[in-house]
């Protein structure tokens, strides 16, 4: 039982029992055993692999992470026990989970300019927005393949989101919304089934105008019928996309036809403009990010240092939290989909729990970055994992159960501007080096 | 009481007369024997008379020696030696010799003694040369004395104590309390005497002199050291050498552990100045013989000798004031947050020193002008360069129009001012700005025709803006807060040095005539006031009446920049010698505070629009951030607290930070460096 082979400090041992919630082939017998107390998670991982190999000769070694009382072990066992004040006399229960780490770095997808928006909510396509005013759709696969280019914006794209994949799997139709620095939101529809060598060029079927300054962020509500947008004009606007879908359905093709025919785009755009259904006013500075996690609840973060929660039906603020820094990113997720993660004009990623009464202090603060945080994203299913991207060129993967990042992805050479999860096990990120980087193989149970 | 006892005892002796009788008889025997001797002597008769008279006395009185004077009168002399060979043993009271008794044969005397039962009581008196027979009482007394008791059995040494006073229930017979003052009866005669003296002193008949004091001065200390005298101090005289330090425990060969410095302490000595470093570092040795020779011994004693006789000494007057107490009481920096501290974003792209920056009123974009002949617009949030204008000349100053409806940039080139549309508006604004920045040809010719006009408005074709030609080099530009008027300063323009322009009418005028060489001019942030800084003064004008209100004396050599507090009643002035002056217009025309912070020229001072902050940028590559609270209460002076020194720019051709501007809404500071980088410092 000495996988490390050192055995020099064999006098100090800890009684441990390995438990897990993993499926049976990865379960070890529940007997307790004595292990040297100087082991780190690598040593413990070796022990578990050895035990698994004893029961199943075909087992392949893989790294594990270990939890003691809901906290990841990130140092030597004895140091951890001392730091947490846990008695070494009792049998220690070590829960092991599969280690979360990126395993594969896919080829970056090159762009013509800075990649400023990315959406990975569709499992087979990635949506990216770029400073060259184009929105691109990339198909998953080993080769970098741009299937669609959406053109029409006159300013840099700040935000791009899938609204819905309409229809059934065999004929995939995208419904998208994008926000841009040209003060407009555009709604797009395109057919995924068509595939040719060159990317298909698509025009917007509807333009949502109303903001008087750059649109910074758009978000789609869970029922996929409404969208909201935050802008530099300090307002949040809500737009209805449901009805436009119905009457816009027939328009798409005709629009394309007309586009080919006439070059007078502006007049065409004017006819297709939609108006906001309501405006939420309250922020005093640029609304840098909006998210819509619940049908009735909408969150926004702003450069006026506040995170606000809005009740959508009444359009009233229900909760305000002032953090002291200008905020650039916000996401809702984690335990009960209620934790608020936000980052901004300092290198600290903060997480608040709005359910906690009376306290506006962040419950977690992660400060491994060295510059502004530009994006943060909770894992769609895990309660513990979230991503953060920073102007220092790093994307970090965090687990709430430890204060250190699980993984640091240094795939960008310049500022990282946007990041998202893709297919639950990959991270897509775009940055000022005009690349969309995909890091895959992150296994999260 | 003792005396009475004595008397009693003497009376006792009188009682014992019977024993005296016995003695008397013995005396008679002695007498008879002496008579025999007297026969042979010369004066027989007389001796007989005397002896008879003696006998009478003996009979009358008792035999105690106190009563009877000794026969012999020679005194206390060693009789045996001196009268060994003499026939007499001394002299009696009348001076006659006392003959020695014939020596008795020892055998005869023994036989005589054996027959006589009283022989044991006889003793020989050598002085008087006679035998004395002691009485039984006397023997008893001797025995009692020998056994340590009182000589007389009647005396009881341990008599019962008779308490002559009664203490119980009586208290102390007398009180210890001091005499109360009420019992004092002032003497009538003393009072009269004092009154008489007072009257005489008042009348001048008695003079009171200060003789006592003079007497005191005459006394001086003979043995004190001269070094402390006033005379010596006055002339800066002899100052004794300081005493060498006595050896302490730390210099022992095996000092206690607490004297031994730890390794950390020894390392910290290395960081100290040579003078402050301790001269001797204690060490421990196992025993005395392993102590090495003290290598500095000769040198130290030599130095001491030099110090003793060569070193001139003076007395230093040291004022013992805690330096901390001299510091002004300032609030903690933590309480004054937020303020810019760290650089997180850099705006790179310029190829030459960035001379000027300006932030648009919404806080979304940043404009900059550089020596490389370009003016650029940056996106503050990401650091992306959005737009570049090739202006072809060094951009000296750039200024964003403060009105949000007019995204217009004013760029100062050598002789020209360019008014450019920034391109940061939607289509409506774009068309409006195009109209605004369009000059109809007749207007231009009109201006050109006016030879007196200081500036000419010309359409700039390349950048689709307005080019304003000045007749001499322009140094600065400043917009009015409403965004229609702006001012340019032409330092060498004499009477046309300050120009006021109106954008909507494309019209220029020179309202201020008599001025020195102006450096810069700014508008009041809310009132119709105008500030013109010349090299040493700041003139305050009322714009509606076009007259001078105030003249501020800065006291600096050359003003480089000026900034007005958003409240409008306080201004800061930066100078080329690194000094910054704060003026409170309602307080005085002299600086309320002068801050000497920079080692080189101050290039720019600036106030924050909303936060109580101001900053200064200098060629020494630093920017200082200050907190400044201006109270609405006029009695309270503004509070100025230095907060942070921002470093990061590199010097280039002796220049450092060329411009600094605050973000209009965030506590962030932009600095433009000669190293062609713009930095953003965030809180």
TrEMBL record, chain A:
Pfam families documented for this protein: NLE (PF08154), WD40 (PF00400)
Predominant location category: nucleus
Keywords: Nucleus, Repeat, Ribosome biogenesis, rRNA processing, WD repeat
Subcellular localization: Nucleus, Nucleolus; Nucleus, Nucleoplasm
One of the record's GO molecular function terms: ribonucleoprotein complex binding
WD repeat spans: 208-249, 280-320, 366-408
NLE domain mapped to chain residues: 14-81
Domain of life of the native organism: Eukaryota
Keyword DNA-binding in record: no
Keyword rRNA processing belongs to the record: yes
CC annotations in GO: nucleolus; nucleoplasm; preribosome, large subunit precursor
Biological processes per GO annotation: maturation of 5.8S rRNA from tricistronic rRNA transcript (SSU-rRNA, 5.8S rRNA, LSU-rRNA); maturation of LSU-rRNA from tricistronic rRNA transcript (SSU-rRNA, 5.8S rRNA, LSU-rRNA)
InterPro entries: NLE, WD40/YVTN_repeat-like_dom_sf, WD40_PAC1, WD40_repeat_CS, WD40_repeat_dom_sf, WD40_rpt, WDR12/Ytm1
Record family assignment: Belongs to the WD repeat WDR12/YTM1 family.
HAMAP family: WDR12
Role summary: Required for maturation of ribosomal RNAs and formation of the large ribosomal subunit.
UniProt name for this protein: Ribosome biogenesis protein WDR12 homolog
Species name: Rhynchospora pubera
Phylogenetic classification of the source organism: Eukaryota, Viridiplantae, Streptophyta, Embryophyta, Tracheophyta
UniProtKB/TrEMBL annotation, chain B:
Region Disordered, annotated ranges: 1-85
Cell location: Nucleus, Nucleolus; Nucleus, Nucleoplasm
GO molecular function, one term: ribonucleoprotein complex binding
Claim: Repeat is one of the keywords in the record: yes
Residue span(s) of domain BOP1 N-terminal: 83-340
Highest rank taxon of the organism: Eukaryota
Pfam families: BOP1NT (PF08145), WD40 (PF00400)
Comp. bias intervals (Acidic residues): 25-53
Biological process annotations from GO: maturation of 5.8S rRNA from tricistronic rRNA transcript (SSU-rRNA, 5.8S rRNA, LSU-rRNA); maturation of LSU-rRNA from tricistronic rRNA transcript (SSU-rRNA, 5.8S rRNA, LSU-rRNA)
InterPro entries per UniProt: BOP1/Erb1 (IPR028598), BOP1_N_dom (IPR012953), WD40/YVTN_repeat-like_dom_sf (IPR015943), WD40_repeat_CS (IPR019775), WD40_repeat_dom_sf (IPR036322), WD40_rpt (IPR001680)
GO CC annotation terms, alphabetical: nucleoplasm; PeBoW complex; preribosome, large subunit precursor
Main location, first listed in the record: nucleus
Keywords: Nucleus, Repeat, Ribosome biogenesis, rRNA processing, WD repeat
Ranges occupied by WD repeats: 347-388
Role noted for this protein: Required for maturation of ribosomal RNAs and formation of the large ribosomal subunit.
Homology family: Belongs to the WD repeat BOP1/ERB1 family.
UniProt-recorded name of the protein: Ribosome biogenesis protein BOP1 homolog
């Amino acid at each position: 039982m000495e996988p490390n082979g050192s055995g020099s400090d064999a006098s100090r041992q800890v009684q441990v029992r390995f438990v897990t919630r993993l499926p049976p082939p990865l379960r070890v017998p529940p007997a307790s055993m004595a292990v040297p107390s100087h082991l780190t998670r690598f040593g413990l991982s070796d022990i578990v692999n050895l035990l698994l190999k004893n029961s199943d000769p075909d087992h392949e070694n893989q790294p594990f992470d270990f939890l003691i009382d809901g906290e990841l072990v990130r140092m030597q066992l004895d140091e951890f026990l001392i730091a947490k004040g846990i008695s070494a006399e009792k049998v220690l229960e070590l829960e092991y989970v599969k280690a979360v780490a990126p395993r594969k770095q896919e080829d970056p997808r090159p762009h013509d300019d800075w990649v400023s928006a990315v959406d990975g909510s569709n499992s087979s396509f990635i949506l990216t927005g770029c400073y060259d005013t184009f929105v691109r759709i990339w198909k998953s696969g080993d080769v970098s393949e741009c299937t669609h280019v959406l053109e029409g914006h006159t300013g840099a794209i700040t935000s791009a989101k899938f609204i819905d994949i309409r229809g059934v799997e065999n004929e995939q139709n995208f419904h998208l919304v994008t926000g841009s620095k040209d003060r407009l939101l555009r709604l797009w529809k395109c057919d995924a089934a068509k595939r040719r060598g060159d990317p298909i060029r698509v025009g917007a079927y509807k333009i949502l105008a109303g903001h008087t300054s750059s649109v910074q962020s758009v978000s789609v509500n869970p029922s996929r019928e409404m969208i909201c947008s935050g802008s530099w004009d300090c307002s949040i606007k809500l737009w209805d996309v449901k009805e436009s879908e119905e009457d816009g359905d027939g328009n798409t093709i005709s629009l394309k036809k007309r586009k080919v025919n006439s070059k007078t785009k502006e007049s065409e755009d004017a006819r297709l403009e939609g108006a906001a259904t309501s405006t939420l006013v309250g922020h005093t500075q640029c609304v840098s990010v909006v998210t819509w996690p619940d049908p009735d609840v909408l969150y926004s973060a702003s450069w006026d240092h506040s995170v606000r929660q809005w009740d959508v039906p009444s359009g009233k603020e229900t909760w305000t939290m002032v953090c002291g820094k200008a905020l650039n990113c916000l996401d809702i997720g984690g335990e009960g989909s209620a934790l608020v993660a936000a980052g901004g004009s300092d290198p600290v990623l903060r997480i608040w729990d709005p359910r906690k009464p009376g306290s506006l202090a962040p419950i977690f603060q992660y400060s491994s970055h060295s510059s502004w945080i530009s994006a943060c994203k909770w894992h769609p299913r895990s309660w513990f994992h979230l991503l953060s991207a920073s102007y220092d060129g790093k994307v970090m993967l965090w687990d709430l159960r430890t204060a250190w990042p699980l993984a640091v992805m240094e795939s960008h050479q310049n500022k990282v501007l946007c990041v998202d999860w893709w297919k639950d096990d990959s991270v897509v990120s775009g940055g000022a080096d005009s690349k969309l980087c995909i890091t895959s193989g992150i296994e999260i149970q | 009481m003792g005396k009475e006892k004595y008397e009693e005892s003497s009376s006792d002796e009188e009682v014992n007369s019977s024993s005296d009788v016995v003695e008397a008889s013995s005396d008679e025997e002695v007498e008879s024997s002496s008579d025999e001797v007297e026969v042979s002597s010369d004066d027989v008769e007389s001796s007989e008379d005397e002896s008879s008279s003696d006998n009478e006395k003996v009979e009358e009185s008792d035999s105690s020696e106190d009563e009877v004077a000794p026969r012999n009168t020679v005194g206390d002399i060693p009789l045996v030696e001196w009268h060994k060979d003499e026939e007499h043993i001394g002299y009696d009271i009348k001076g006659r010799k006392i003959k020695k008794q014939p020596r008795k044969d020892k055998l005869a005397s023994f036989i005589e003694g054996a027959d006589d039962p009283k022989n044991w009581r006889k003793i020989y008196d050598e002085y008087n040369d006679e035998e004395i027979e002691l009485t039984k009482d006397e023997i008893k007394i001797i025995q009692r004395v020998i056994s340590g008791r009182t000589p007389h059995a009647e005396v009881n040494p341990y008599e019962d104590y008779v308490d002559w006073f009664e203490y119980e229930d009586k208290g102390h017979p007398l009180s210890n309390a001091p005499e109360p003052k009420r019992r004092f009866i002032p003497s009538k005669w003393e009072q009269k005497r004092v009154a008489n003296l007072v009257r005489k002193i008042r009348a001048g008949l008695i003079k009171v002199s200060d003789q006592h004091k003079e007497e005191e001065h005459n006394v001086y200390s003979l043995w004190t050291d001269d070094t402390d005298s006033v005379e010596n101090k006055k002339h800066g005289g002899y100052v004794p050498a300081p005493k060498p330090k006595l050896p302490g425990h730390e210099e022992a060969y095996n000092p206690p552990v607490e004297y031994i410095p730890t390794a950390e302490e020894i390392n910290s000595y290395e960081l100290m100045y040579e003078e402050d470093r301790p001269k001797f570092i204690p060490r421990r040795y196992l025993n005395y013989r392993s102590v090495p020779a003290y290598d500095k011994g000769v040198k130290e004693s030599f130095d001491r000798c030099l110090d003793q006789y060569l070193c001139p000494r003076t007395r230093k007057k040291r004022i013992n004031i805690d330096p901390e107490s001299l510091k002004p009481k300032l609030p903690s920096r933590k309480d004054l947050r937020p303020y810019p501290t760290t650089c997180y974003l850099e705006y790179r792209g310029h190829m030459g020193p960035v001379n000027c920056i300006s932030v648009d009123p919404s806080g979304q974009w940043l404009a900059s002008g550089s020596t490389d002949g370009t003016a650029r617009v940056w996106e503050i949030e990401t650091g992306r360069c959005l737009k570049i204008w090739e202006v072809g000349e060094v951009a000296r100053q750039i200024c964003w129009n403060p009105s949000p409806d007019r995204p217009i940039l004013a760029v100062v080139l050598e002789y020209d001012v360019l008014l450019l549309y920034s391109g940061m508006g939607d289509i409506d604004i774009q068309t409006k700005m195009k109209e605004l920045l369009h000059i109809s040809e007749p207007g231009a010719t009109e201006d050109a025709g006016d030879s007196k006009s200081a500036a000419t408005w010309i359409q700039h074709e390349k950048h689709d803006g307005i080019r304003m030609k000045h007749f001499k080099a322009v140094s600065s530009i400043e917009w009015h807060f409403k965004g229609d008027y702006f001012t340019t300063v032409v330092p060498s323009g004499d009477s046309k040095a300050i120009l006021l322009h109106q954008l909507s009418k494309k019209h220029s005028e020179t309202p201020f005539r008599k001025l020195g060489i102006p450096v810069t001019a700014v508008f009041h942030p809310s009132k119709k006031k105008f500030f013109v800084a010349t090299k040493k003064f700041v003139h305050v004008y009322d714009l509606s009446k076009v007259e001078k209100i105030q003249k501020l004396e800065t006291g600096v050599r050359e003003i480089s920049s000026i900034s007005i507090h958003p409240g409008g009643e306080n201004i800061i002035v930066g100078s080329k010698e690194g000094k910054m002056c704060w003026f409170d217009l309602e307080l005085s025309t002299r600086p309320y505070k002068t801050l000497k912070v920079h080692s080189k020229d101050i290039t720019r001072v600036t106030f924050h629009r909303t936060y109580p902050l101001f900053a200064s940028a200098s060629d020494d590559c630093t920017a200082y951030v200050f907190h400044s609270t201006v109270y609405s209460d006029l009695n309270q002076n503004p509070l100025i607290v230095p907060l942070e020194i921002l470093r990061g720019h590199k010097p280039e051709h002796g220049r450092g930070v060329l411009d600094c501007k605050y973000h209009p809404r965030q506590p962030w500071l932009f600095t433009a460096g000669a190293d062609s980088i713009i930095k953003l410092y965030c809180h």
